[in-house]
Amino acid sequence: MTVTSPTTPLSRAESNALVLLTLSQVVLFLIPLIVLGKAIGWPASLRLPASDALPLIAAKAIFVQIGYWGYMLTAVAMVPFVVALRRYACAHGAAGLLNDTMAAFGVAAAVLKTLGIVRWLIAMPSLASLYVDTPDPTFRAVIEVSYVTINNYSGGVGELLGVQLLSGLWLVLLGLLFSRIGLRRNGIASVLLGIGFTVTALRTLVPQLDLLNAIVPPLALVWLTVLAVVFLRRA
């Protein structure tokens, strides 16, 4: 239950910071989308077999670093973004359990996303370099197994739990919160988007749900852009 209590209005600096943090999620995500998309065909490259992915990562090492640094900054910047959303809700009379739970899920999602992305800055480039530098087929087979194992585990932590499950639940809670502070349309959009992300996490049970990966992220960018405009107008 949301508790309505006397509130302290947002300052001009807080309002501006919220708009910038919202837009930063869009701008920072465009870095991996553009850089990695052009260099290695990301995110489709995540599904390449190790024998194809490792040489590609080694050949485009600098672009992989740039792209994934941008992606990691998106996850890191999500923490102050979530905190700012919590402050915004408090300023509009929605302090309480729902607001605190929303913030907790959002921060948890950001942390798990960051942990999943780090593998592309350290482990994967190292494996790729070793793979192209050795002619030994046995050693290459070991590297391929290591690549698949790390990718499956870290991908499960970062993508399955962080990007999809916890982010989906965070968006649903945020949508409910928006509906209570007069942002009904944004709230409905947030809930639907959150359901989309959460359902995608069930792809381990229903592989066909993986198709949502091509639909939900672009919708999230549109949602964030619209949200930044709403915050700016309400400021």
Structural overview:
By secondary structure, the protein is mostly helical. The chain has one domain. Helix content is 77%, strand content 2%. Strands 1-2 form a two-stranded antiparallel sheet. Helix 2 packs across helix 5 and helix 3 (61-91) runs antiparallel to helix 4. The longest helix is centred in the last third of the chain and has 44 residues, at 137-180. The chain is elongated, with a radius of gyration of 20 Å.
Record keyword descriptors for this entry.
disordered N terminus; 235 residues; 77% helix; two-stranded antiparallel ribbon; 8 helices; mainly alpha; elongated
Summarize the structure.
The protein is an all-alpha fold. Helix content is 77%, strand content 2%.
**What form results from the Cα inertia axes?**
elongated
Find the structural class using helix and strand composition: mainly alpha
- Total of DSSP H or I helical runs spanning 4+ residues: 8
Give the strand order of the largest sheet, numbering strands 1, 2, ... along the chain: 1-2
Q: Tell me the series of helices and strands, N- to C-terminal.
A: EHHHEHHHHH
Mean pLDDT: 93
Largest sheet: 2 strands, antiparallel
Strand content: under 5%
Q: Give the termini distance in whole angstroms.
A: 26 Å
**In terms of per-residue confidence, which ranges show pLDDT below 50 for 5 or more consecutive residues?**
1-6
Task: Report the count of strand segments.
Answer: 2
Question: How many domains make up the 3D coordinates?
Answer: 1
* Cα gyration radius (Å): 20 Å
Helix content: over 70%
